[in-house]
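Practice problem: predict the structure.
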Amino acid sequence: MLHIGCHLSSSKGFAAMGDMALSIGADTFAFFTRNPRGGAAKAADPKDASALMDRCRDRGFARLVAHAPYTMNLCSADAGLREFACTMMKDDLARMELIPGNYYNFHPGSHTGQGVETGIGFIAAALNQTLPLAEHTTVLLETMAGKGSEIGRSFQELRDIIDRVEEPWRGRLGVCMDTCHLHDAGYDIINDLEGVLTQFDKEIGLERLRACHLNDSMNPGGSRKDRHARIGEGHIGLEALVRVVSHPVLRDLPFVLETPNELPGYAAEIKLLRERRGE
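Answer:
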């Protein structure tokens, strides 16, 4: 079965997100651990978290994919911002222990003019500090489009981060593939999905691929823009995205829609993709 959902608002709590997911036919979902554009985090209710875990178990949900805020930059040139980001991540990972066995996804960061090598060093150093808190959570590096000074636009950059993380913490790291980001970074998932996955396996290892953000793109391949479009309404197209969700290597991953939609639009995309996969 296609495990698919979308980003849901966490403002009403954990259990409410589970109910929202069920209402649109989803069996997984993503949520921001705090305000995506800021640092504030709502206090977590252990009973509410337990109620969500019960729903997920009873309804056969795939793993959930929590998302760090966009403002968390572990490789900023500003030491104070790096420290703030690291503190934020530690707090998030401690709270993820309330919903054990799920994923915590984050954008690797922007080196803000210091260079990729320096940025990768800062990201790995932060992970060495924070991953000990991820006892029951797998932390996912997201593939990025490469706009500005973003790190993570190539598989090799993600591999370099992983290689600098110490054992045993390295085993707590995975990757979340984003279809829009891959396309915009120049990976040809339209005409050569097999080749892209072969390259991923060679440079990172398919065993680290744990989740997928499923998005069309408003821009041509290689644009390095990162502008998401609804499924079938962008430059990637419906047929290529159906091949993604149907590929033997990918088909059992949790897929998260990050398309510009409200709940009815997400419900329609979930229905469409399940139908196209023959479910």
